[in-house]
Amino acid sequence: MKKIYALLACLAWVVTLFSQNDPAAKKVLDAVGAKVKSAKGITASCSLNSFTSKGKPNGTKTISLLMKAEKYLLKQGKTEIVCDGQNVYTYDGDKTITKAAVDETSQTLNPQKLLSGTYDKDFTYKLVSSAGTNFEIEMKPIDARKNFQKINLFIDKVKNTFSKARILDKSNNITELKVLTINLNSAIPESNFIFNKGKYPKDVEILD
């Protein structure tokens, strides 16, 4: 789950790297960002496939997502992550909930960052392919402390929405996140993004 979530180098280095960004890629990402920002509420289902550094399949999971602005609810089996815009609560599906401020989770990829198309502060990027139905954009983190090497994003040319991401981690393992369904006009009650300890087992422990 940490691989689905949302830290900078010195200013001079950032300015230098920004100059390397591809204007064609930025145009695509800006279009995605504009669509996400104007969304009433986002509901999506995704498949998560992982592969070892040698290319061996390492399992498939199904994920559901609710998102509104900076808030989101991510579920996979019994595990879930709730973000109320200020704090992120991660339930391990058993007896532990980890609480962290949003800023403290910025080493990882969160859904809002992955879907928003606004990457200037965190990545350098370039358009590597426009063949077929998707644009493919390669992104590399500016901050070397990130827990992944690069992300290849696939953007639907017609819908201007995120369709797939391929994430290469520091150990050369690959995680592929594919959007199965997505609705940008969902009416989502705010209660979905409010952490409620009562919905979890009585003996659950909260760590912060």
Rg on CA atoms, Å = 17 Å
CATH class: Mainly Beta
Residue windows where pLDDT falls under 50 for at least 5 positions:
3-19
- How many beta-strand elements? 12
- SSE pattern, N- to C-terminal: HHEEEEEEHEEEEEE
In the CATH hierarchy, the third-tier topology is known as: outer membrane lipoprotein receptor (LolB), chain A
Averaging pLDDT over every residue, what do you get?
83
Task: Return the domain count.
Answer: 1
Instruction: Provide the spatial order of strands within the biggest beta sheet.
Output: 7-8-9-10-11-1-2-3-4-5-6-12
Number of helices: 3
Beta-strand residue percentage: 35-45%
Tell me the distance between the termini: 18 Å
Taken from the alpha-carbon principal axes, the silhouette is globular
CATH architectural category: Clam
- What is the H level of CATH, i.e. the homologous superfamily? Lipoprotein localisation LolA/LolB/LppX
What structural category do the secondary elements indicate?
mainly beta
